[in-house]
Hints:
Blueprint: H1 8-21, H2 26-47, E1 57-64, E2 67-74, H3 92-99, E3 102-108, E4 111-119
Amino acid sequence: MAAKVEILTTVRRELAAWAQRLGVGQPTVQAVELACYEAMSNVTQHAYGNGDTDGQLSLSASLYPDRLTVVVSDSGQWRERVPDANPDGGMGLGLIRQLADRADIDTSRDGTTVSMTWSGPELRFDA
């Protein structure tokens, strides 16, 4: 999908609705929704510089008996945060790591992949 900030709210809501339909508990749904929104927002803000308006964002989500995983990726270039460039920013990756049971960030010349996993009793399937 296009890496456009205008679509993030819709994608976030669709992801939350998917998890709810599958019986994932509300606390986990909220954590997934916020962490994934942050990961997608990072793509729109940081992955594609120099006015690149054709950047793509990929999101995949999978539910297994013992875990839920979401992967957000792009084909842009990783850019280190510049201190004081945005005093209100720079907390997205930390928030993702707090919300997910496991968060891995892989960067390469081909792009960035953020893999988030929720597992164990915190998954809390609703009956």
